[in-house]
Write a structure and sequence with these properties.
By secondary structure, the protein is α/β, with parallel strands linked by helices. The chain is 46% helix and 14% strand. The protein has helices at residues 3-7, 16-37, 42-60, 87-92, 112-118, 131-142, 168-176, 220-241, 246-250, 254-265, 277-294; strands spanning 63-65, 76-80, 99-104, 121-124, 146-148, 161-163, 180-186, 192-193, 196-197, 203-206, 269-271. The strands form three sheets. The protein has a seven-stranded mixed beta sheet. Helix 2 (16-37) packs parallel to helix 6 and helix 7 crosses helix 8 (220-241).
Length: 296
């Protein structure tokens, strides 16, 4: 929905709700313009990245592998699983290059949106085909940038499961020629105990890039993601979960940990496509209202 089109629906002037929507649409438009034309604010990005390196690495004992699969100067799409809001920051500390990523449009409505834009984020409307977000991603990739696309489309908090992937990363790869770098991240599900983060180990692994095949047929988009990218993420996710931690090395609770590691070696469960929590709640309210109306 464009701002100009929405203004045409105000014959007697905008209501308060319409004015709020207009401000949100204008903020969204500015975020895309900034992302396409300016990218990030270098000083803000450097400061927040330094802070993240110190805090996240110390608290979560972050272990990163496969950095050699990240291109040093060319474009690429990073395709990790998604468990927590902080996943984007863990990806950001893995490379000195500026990492750009899609973030749900709701995050850009408050003061946090101003900072997110300067840290490389741009808004995406989940649950619908967002042409603006895809165009911004294409512009970044065409200029040689790194773009994070979470194929699950939303956070999947179950530690033993991944969601079935959407195909947006494949479409971007075929449209721009950028390779897809699969990535697996563990330890970020259920990361918080109230307002405080739990003391956990976070592991992040990048995998060999998957190059698109421009001359492929119409099924190539799903083939790239379903047959090549996501199986690699799923297998690596299970392998990371099976790694021994500090307690296992010390021999404390070895039997229980051995059992957990054996279970973790199995590939994580693959759920169907997971809808964003806000959309699930909206549908649940509609179903409840429909049932209540049927009682009268």
């Amino acid at each position: 929905m464009s701002l100009e089109h929405h203004h045409a629906d105000w014959p007697h002037g905008p209501s308060r709700a319409d004015a709020r929507l207009a401000r949100a649409l204008e903020a969204e438009r500015k975020a895309h313009t900034y992302a396409r034309n300016r990218g990030v604010a270098p000083r803000s990005y450097a400061f927040v990245r330094l802070l993240a390196v110190v805090v996240l690495r110390l608290w979560f004992r972050v272990r990163i592998s496969g950095r050699e699969y990240l291109p040093t100067g060319s474009s690429a799409i990073l395709a990790p699983n998604h468990k927590n809001f902080l996943d984007a920051f863990f990806l950001g500390i893995a490379t000195r290059r500026h990492v750009r990523y899609m973030a749900k449009v709701e995050l850009f409505k408050g003061p946090l949106g101003w900072l997110l834009v300067r840290l490389g984020a741009f808004p995406v409307r989940r649950g619908e085909a967002d042409a603006e977000a895809l165009e911004t991603a294409r512009a970044i990739l065409t200029s040689g940038g790194l773009v994070v696309v979470f194929p699950e489309g939303t956070r999947v908090e179950q530690p033993d499961a991944l969601g079935s992937p959407h195909h947006g990363a494949g479409r971007l790869a075929l449209a721009t020629g950028a390779p897809i770098v699969p990535a697996a991240i563990t330890g970020t599900s259920h990361l918080w105990r109230g307002a405080l983060p739990r003391l956990k180990r976070v592991q992040l692994a990048f995998l060999p890039a998957v190059a698109p095949e421009p001359a492929a047929g119409p099924d190539q988009v799903s083939a790239v993601i379903d047959d090549r990218v996501w199986p690699a993420v799923r297998e690596e996710y299970g392998r990371l979960r099976a790694r021994p931690g500090l307690i296992a090395v010390l021999g404390v609770g070895g039997g229980l940990l051995a059992k957990r590691r054996l279970e973790a070696r199995r590939q994580p469960r693959l759920l169907s496509k997971v809808e964003p929590r806000k959309l699930r709640r909206r549908k649940a309210r509609r179903r409840l209202l429909k049932r209540l109306r049927s009682l009268h």
